[in-house]
Write a structure and sequence with these properties.
Distance between the termini: 75 Å
Largest sheet: 7 strands, antiparallel
Strand order of the largest sheet: 1-7-6-5-4-3-2
Order of helices and strands: HHHHHHEHHEEEEEEH
Number of strands: 7
Helix content: 40-55%
CATH superfamily of the largest domain: START domain
CATH topology of the largest domain: Alpha-D-Glucose-1,6-Bisphosphate, Chain A, domain 4
CATH architecture of the largest domain: 2-Layer Sandwich
Radius of gyration: 25 Å
Length: 324
């Protein structure tokens, strides 16, 4: 390890900018390699990718940055964050990921990288452990893919989440029901989320009537196929989901299709519940049951719930306008 450190000192001049550049490049490119292994080969978007990887980026970049001599905490933190930003830019440039998904992951990744930087700073700030720093970096490189593989082998089962959105309509249930079952095309969306590429509903049609009929809800990325399981006119329409399109079109200069667009955010069933409020008014509730096979579940649920609420709201407002 001492020899590795001496080689580093000869190759990289002992000043901050050069050492920072080397730390960013080596750590960032290594993180990309680990990500490709986890995503492309293990098909896993879990704790290893979204927690372990940014944490190791923080440790690794600070350790490499401090190889020539111990650095200050602020400088280590800056290098850690710069490494994560470099990683994200490369993921877009190398056509591995789109801008929207990286932006969604950023609020989770940057604080974790900062936490890892604290550990890396503490290691490199102690002269008596300096010769072991290359070994620390190598251990990170070898351990993280192993943790990803163990997580993949563990086969974590996602939780089924429920999202309900409601709107009050100045029309009786019988009138609202007609627009629930099927509705004509909606206008183009104004919300930034949909304009950035997240899939949004455009129209719906019903094929048949009663239980066994098939509702087709068309989205900007394709069509949901929804066999009717409960037809209680004009109170409840409940359906399963047997086929669905990608949840978004990635925002990228390339035509990319990352693995997480297929079978990671999965709608299982949905329903519309109509409740009379009296005086010719109706409360319409739309509910979706879904799973999101990305971890930590609590974090990614914030995004998926938000997106589904926005989708519900677009449909419910359209039905409200038609019924009134």
């Amino acid at each position: 390890m001492r020899r590795i450190r001496e080689i580093h000192r000869r190759v990289v001049p002992d000043y901050s900018l050069a050492s920072a550049t080397v730390a960013v490049l080596i750590t960032g490119l290594t993180a990309i390699g680990v990500t490709v292994f986890g995503v492309e080969y293990l098909k896993n978007y879990g704790w290893g990718l979204f927690v372990g990887m940014p944490f190791c980026v923080g440790i690794g970049s600070a350790v490499l940055f401090g190889l020539p001599k111990p650095r200050g905490f602020g400088a280590c933190l800056g290098v850690g964050c710069a490494t994560l930003a470099f990683y994200g830019i490369c993921m877009m440039v190398f056509a591995r990921e789109g801008a929207i998904c990286l932006l969604m992951a950023a609020p989770l990744a940057f604080p974790i990288t900062a936490a890892g930087t604290v550990i890396g700073y503490a290691l490199q700030a102690r002269p008596w452990v300096g010769d072991s720093l290359p070994g620390v970096f190598l251990a990170l490189v070898l351990t993280l893919p192993g943790l990803m593989a163990a997580e993949y082998a563990g086969d974590l089962q996602p939780t089924v989440f429920e999202v309900t959105t409601s709107v009050d309509i100045d029309a009786p249930p019988e009138q609202v029901w007609r627009s629930v079952v099927s509705f004509p095309p909606l206008g183009e969306p104004d919300e930034w989320l949909f304009r950035a590429g997240v899939a949004y509903p455009t129209e719906a049609a019903i094929h048949g009537q009663g239980v066994g009929a098939e509702r087709h809800c068309v989205f900007s990325t394709g069509k949901f196929v929804e066999p009717i399981e409960v037809w209680d006119e004009p109170r409840l329409l409940q359906f399963s989901v047997t086929d669905q399109p990608p949840p978004m079109k990635e925002l990228s200069v390339y035509d990319i299709h990352p693995p997480h667009l297929d079978h990671y955010l999965v709608s299982q069933k949905g329903q519309f519940l109509l409740t009379p409020l009296g005086y010719g008014r109706t409360r319409l509730e739309g509910t979706t049951w879904y799973v999101n096979k990305m971890w930590p579940e609590a974090y990614w649920r914030l995004w998926s719930d938000y997106i589904i609420h926005r989708i519900h709201g677009r449909v419910l407002r359209h039905i409200k306008g038609l019924a009134e």
